[in-house]
Write a structure and sequence with these properties.
Helix content is 18%, strand content 29%. The chain has 454 residues and is an alpha/beta fold. The strands form six sheets. The protein has an eight-stranded mixed sheet with strand order 12-13-15-14-16-17-20-21, with helices on both faces. A six-stranded mixed sheet has the order 4-11-10-6-7-9. A three-stranded antiparallel sheet has the order 3-5-8, with no helix packed on it. β18 and β19 form a beta hairpin. The longest helix is centred in the C-terminal third of the chain and has 23 residues. The radius of gyration is 23 Å and the shape is globular.
Length: 454
C-alpha cells in the first residue's frame, strides 16, 4: 500500500491507497493508462474496464510538485453497456473539465483546496519525471478524494527529456545556460531558447525540443544577484548564439531563435539588427516589437518604468500590464524595424493576453513588413480566449500567478488571461505548429527530423 503526502497550508493531503476495491460479486475494475512512461507532449490513453454497466465513476489525477504543493483534476463519467469508460471517446459530464478530452486530467489540474495562492506548476529538475497518479472512484465526486478508497489506481511518468538526450551546463565567456543535445552523433539544427521577464534558467522547453531532434540552448539572462542586467546587452546574446553555433553537434548553418514574452522582444531585436545572429527562422510567443532591446537590459527596464502609471489593477488586485506599451507608437524609431528581418518568423499570440498587447503588435508588424516587402516571411497564429503563458501542451492553465515584477523588484499577482479549455487547445495546436515550422526551415523536409522516443 503506497501513499503520497504533501503539505498544503497546515494539513496533509493523502492519495488514496494504490489498490483495487471489489464493487460487486467479486469483480475488480481495471484501470489502464498507456503509455505509463512518455514525453509530456505525448497523449495517453485511459480506459477503465470491468465496471458495472452505466456505472457513475470519477477519474481523478493528482501530482505533488517539486515545491510540495498538490495539484489535482477530475472528470465525471458513466460506463457503457459493457462496463467500460474510454476517456478518448467518452464525455466527462462534470468536474474540472467537461466533454471528450483525452488529456483533461492534465491540462485542467489546479491546486487542491487549502493550497497557497498564486501557484504556477513548473518543472525545475528535468532529469526527473512529472509523476501523476490517476485513480477511478465510484460515484461522481468533487472533493474528499483522500478520504475515499479508489476502485483502481495507476501511475504515469511524464518526461521532458527522452532517453539519450544530453544535458550540458554552459558557463563560457560570461554566458550562462544549459545545452540539450539529441541522442546520437548529430549534427543537429540549433535553437537558442529565451524565456521571459520572470528571469532564472528555465530548461524544460529546451529539453523537450532536444527530444524532438533540435540542439537547444536554454539561455539565462536575468538572474538576481548573479547575472547583472547592467552587463547584459546584444553582445551577450550574440556570444550565446555563437557558442551554440560552434558546438560540433550543431549544424551552424541551420539555426533558429525562440522567445517567449520579453524573450520575443530580444529575438526580434537580434534578428533585425545583429550582424552576428543570422538564423534561418525564429519563433516569437506572446511578444511585441515595441520594446527594442538595443541597449543593456537594465536600461530597457529603466525605459519601461517610465510607463508604470499605465499599469492597471483589477478588483482581485491582479496586475494588468498590457497597457504599458499601448498605444502602438507610429514613430518607427520607437519600435524594432521588422522590415529588416530576412528570415521566416512565426508569431504565436493569445486573444486574451493581459500581459502584452500581442495582437495589436502583430497587426502593426504585418503593416510594417508589408511596406518593407517582407510580409511573405511572417506567419501569425492567434488563439481567441487563450492567455499569455502559451507553454508546451497539457501544461495547466494559469490565469494569474505570483510574479516578481523585474522593473520594480516587487512581488505581485500578475493577470495572464485566458480561459482553461481554449488555452489548452492553443498550447496543443501551437506546439505542433512550432515543431512543424522548425522542421520545415531547419531540416530539408518535415519528414527528415529525428524524433527521439521513450
Amino acid at each position: 500500500m503506497t501513499f503520497i503526502t504533501g503539505e498544503t497550508s497546515s494539513r496533509t493531503i493523502m492519495l488514496a491507497p494504490v489498490r483495487t476495491l471489489s464493487i460487486e460479486m467479486g469483480t475488480c475494475p481495471i484501470l489502464s493508462v498507456q503509455p505509463t512512461r512518455g514525453l509530456v507532449d505525448e497523449k495517453f490513453q485511459i480506459v477503465v474496464m470491468s465496471l458495472l454497466p452505466n456505472q457513475e465513476v470519477t477519474l481523478h489525477s493528482i501530482h505533488q510538485s517539486e515545491d510540495k504543493d498538490v495539484w489535482e483534476a477530475f472528470g465525471h463519467y458513466k460506463s457503457d453497456e459493457h462496463g467500460t469508460v474510454t476517456v478518448a471517446k467518452d464525455e466527462s459530464l462534470g468536474g474540472t473539465y467537461e466533454g471528450t478530452e483525452p488529456m483533461g486530467l492534465l491540462w485542467s489540474m489546479r491546486p487542491v483546496p487549502g493550497s497557497r495562492s498564486g501557484l504556477r506548476l513548473r518543472k525545475r529538475d528535468i532529469l526527473t519525471p512529472m509523476v501523476v497518479h490517476i485513480s477511478v472512484y465510484d460515484g461522481h465526486l468533487n472533493q474528499g478524494f483522500n478520504q475515499k478508497t479508489a476502485l483502481a489506481t495507476s501511475v504515469t511518468e511524464r518526461w521532458y527529456m527522452a532517453p539519450g538526450v544530453q544535458r550540458v551546463d554552459i558557463r563560457e565567456k560570461g554566458v550562462r545556460g544549459t545545452l540539450f543535445l539529441p541522442p546520437g552523433p548529430g549534427p543537429y539544427p540549433g535553437v537558442l531558447d529565451l524565456w521571459g521577464g520572470g528571469g532564472g534558467l528555465v530548461e524544460y522547453r529546451s529539453a523537450l525540443l532536444a527530444s524532438h531532434g533540435f540542439a537547444s540552448l536554454a539561455l539565462e539572462y536575468l538572474t538576481p544577484d548573479e547575472l547583472k542586467t547592467t552587463d547584459v546587452d546584444s553582445s551577450y546574446f550574440e556570444e550565446a548564439y555563437q557558442i551554440l553555433q560552434n558546438n560540433p553537434k550543431v549544424q551552424r548553418n541551420r539555426m533558429a531563435m525562440l522567445g517567449l514574452s520579453f524573450g520575443s522582444a530580444i529575438t526580434l531585436t537580434m534578428v533585425a539588427y545583429s550582424k552576428v545572429i543570422k538564423p534561418q527562422c525564429c519563433v516569437c510567443i506572446s511578444g511585441s516589437h515595441v520594446v527594442p532591446v538595443d541597449k543593456s537590459i537594465f536600461k530597457v527596464f529603466e525605459e519601461i518604468k517610465k510607463n508604470m502609471s499605465k499599469i492597471r489593477v483589477n478588483k482581485d488586485n491582479h496586475v494588468i500590464q498590457r497597457d504599458l506599451i499601448l498605444p502602438i507608437p507610429s514613430d518607427p524609431t520607437l519600435k524594432i524595424d521588422v522590415g529588416r528581418i530576412k528570415c521566416p518568423v512565426l508569431l504565436v499570440n493569445a486573444g486574451d493576453d493581459q500581459n502584452w498587447p500581442t495582437v495589436e503588435s502583430a497587426e502593426d508588424m504585418e503593416m510594417m513588413m508589408e511596406m518593407a516587402g517582407n510580409r511573405h516571411l511572417l506567419e501569425v497564429l492567434t488563439y481567441p480566449d487563450a492567455g499569455h503563458l502559451i507553454e508546451p501542451p497539457y501544461t495547466p492553465h494559469f490565469r494569474s500567478t505570483n510574479f516578481i515584477l523585474q522593473e520594480m523588484k516587487e512581488k505581485i499577482v500578475m493577470l495572464w488571461g485566458g480561459q482553461t479549455k481554449p488555452h489548452a487547445y492553443a498550447q496543443e495546436d501551437a506546439w505542433e505548429k512550432i515543431l512543424s515550422f522548425l522542421q520545415k526551415h531547419l531540416y530539408f523536409s518535415s519528414n527528415s527530423a529525428v524524433k527521439a522516443k521513450l
